[in-house]
Amino acid sequence: MTASSDLLSRLAERLGEKHVLTAPTDIAPHLVEWRGLFRGSALAVVRPADTDEVAFVVAACAEAGIAIVAQGGNTGLVGGGVPWGGIVLSLGRLSRIRAVDPLSATITVEAGALLAEVQAAADAQGMLFPLSLPSEGSCTIGGNLATNAGGTGVLAYGNMRDLVLGLEVVLADGRVWNGLSALRKDNAGYDLKHLFVGSEGTLGIITASVLKLYPKPSSRAVGFVGLSSPRTALALFEALRRAAGHDLTAFEYIPRYGLDIVLRHRPALPRPLTGDHAAYALVEMSTTRPGADALGDLEVALAAAIENGFVEDAVICASEAQNLNLWSLRENLSDVQSLEGGSIKHDVSVPLARIADFLDAAIAACEAEMPGLRVCAFGHFGDGNIHFNLSQPVGMEKAAFLKQWGRFNRIVHDIVHGMGGSIAAEHGIGLIKRDELVRYGDPVGLDLMRRLKAALDPHDLLNPGKIVASSPNPPPAL
Ligand code: FAD
C-alpha cells in the first residue's frame, strides 16, 4: 500500500467513504479556479463534518507528508484554491451558525457557512452582518476570512479583518487553536487571529469564527450618477463624504463601457439614466439614527453636487425594488465581462487622492499598448480600490490575448507601485500574483512572511506554492 492510498483508507474509515471523493467527475469542480484560468490535480476531495474531523485529516496528512488545499465556495479570484497533488479539504459541511448574540452584537459561525446564510441569520435577529460581495450566495465565511474579503460594504464597515473578533484554527500539525473569543478588548499578547486572516490557507485551516454584527439601518437611499470623468467622481465622493460622514455606505464606480456591457447582456435591467456619460457612480446612504431620512439627505447632497458642476445627471430610487435593480447593475459587472471574450484583470488600490491620476494614466498606457483594447476599470472607488480589467479587442483570439497578461501587469502594476498603491487590494495573492509580490513587496516584509510560514507550517503542507512559498511549478494554465 502506498502512503497516499493508506492515507485515503484512514480518512475514509474516520469520515465515511462518501466523504472522501476520488472519482474524477466528483473532484473535477474542485480542480478548476472560478475563472477557468488554472486546472490542478488532487488525490481526493475530503469533506469533514466538524472541527475534530478537520484536525484528524490535517494530522493524518502531516504524518503522511501529503499537502492540503482548503476550499470553501471555490469562488476565489487568484488561484489560491487550486490544488496540485495532495488533497482538497472542502469545508462545506462545517456550516452551522453556532450562536447569534444581539447583546454583544456577535455571531459565531463555522467556516463552511455561506456568506448569504450568515447575513440572513443576522437579519433574522434584526442585526446586520455588513460584508457584501457579488459571490455571497456561493462563498463561505472561511474563504472570506482566509482572503480578507472586501466588497461593497468596506467604506462604512471595513473588510473581513475588521469584522472578526475570534477564530478557531486547525494548525499544520493537527492541533486546534481555540481563539473563539467574543471580547472587544483583549490585549493579552500577540493578536494571533490576524495572522490567519488573509493567509489564504497557507498557515492554518479556519474552522469557526466570532464575527461582529451591527444595527440594521432604518433608512437607506441609493442613487445613480452620471459623471464626466474620474476627477469629478473624486470631487463627488469628497462632497458626499463631507455631507454624510459615516452614513455614506457605498460609492461604486462604473465606466461607460461597463454599464454598456451589463445592459447588453442583462436586457431585463432598466437603463438608469437617459443620456450617456463617461462614467457613473452608484452611491448609497444609510442610517440607523431614529427619524433620520437617508433619501432626503441624498437628494440634498446630489442637488448641491449638480449645482457645483460635479454631476451631469442623477437619479434616486423611490423604492427598495429600484434600489435592488441599481445594485444589480453593479453586481452583474463581474459576470458579463466573461461574455465579451478574454479578460485580463488587476485588483489594485491607490491612495484615494491619486485615484483619478491612476485611472487616467493606466487607461492611456494600456490603450496605447494595444489598439482596440476595451478597458473596464470599475469598483470600490471610495476605498481607493479599482478592478482594472481589460477586455480583449473584438475579433482577437482569446488565448492569444490572455498570453499578454504579464505585459499588462507590468504596465498597470508599475503605475500602481509608483503611486504608493497595492497590487493586491482585496482578492489576495494566491498563485496568480505570487511573482508580482516578490517583485513589488518590501524585502524585509517578504522575509517576515517566509519566516512565519516556516514557523507555522515547517513542512510546507498547507497550500504549498501560494503567496510566498517557492515550490514546484504551478499547475498548467487552461
Ligand atoms: P475559496 O475560493 O474556496 O478559497 C479562497 C482561498 O481561501 C484559498 O486560498 C483557500 O485555500 C482558502 N480557504 C478557503 N477556506 C478556508 C478555510 N476555512 N481555512 C483556511 N483557508 C481557507 N472578493 C472580494 O474581496 N470582494 C469582492 O467584491 C468580490 N467579488 C466577487 C465577485 C464574484 C462574481 C466572484 C466569483 C468572486 C468575488 N470575490 C470578491 C472573490 C471571492 O468571492 C472571495 O475571495 C471569497 O472570500 C472567497 O470565498 P470562498 O469560500 O469561495 O473561498
Write up what this structure looks like:
This protein has about 475 residues and is an alpha+beta fold. Among the domains are: about 95-215, Uridine Diphospho-n-acetylenolpyruvylglucosamine Reductase, domain 3, CATH 3.30.465; about 220-335, Alpha-Beta Plaits, CATH 3.30.70.2190; about 340-425, Alpha-Beta Plaits. The protein has helices at about 5-15, 25-30, 50-65, 115-125, 140-145, 155, 195, 230-245, 255-265, 295-305, 320-330, 335, 355-370, 400, 405-420, 435-440, 445-455, and strands spanning about 20, 45, 70, 85-90, 95-100, 105-110, 125-130, 165-170, 175-180, 205-210, 215, 220-225, 250-255, 280-285, 315, 345, 345-350, 375-380, 385-390. The chain has a 5-stranded antiparallel beta sheet. It is globular. The two termini are about 35 Å apart. The model has no long low-confidence stretch (mean pLDDT about 95). It binds flavin-adenine dinucleotide (FAD). The site of flavin-adenine dinucleotide has 37 residues, from strand 3, helix 5, strand 10 and helix 12. Belongs to the FAD-binding oxidoreductase/transferase type 4 family. Keywords: FAD, Flavoprotein. This is FAD-binding oxidoreductase.
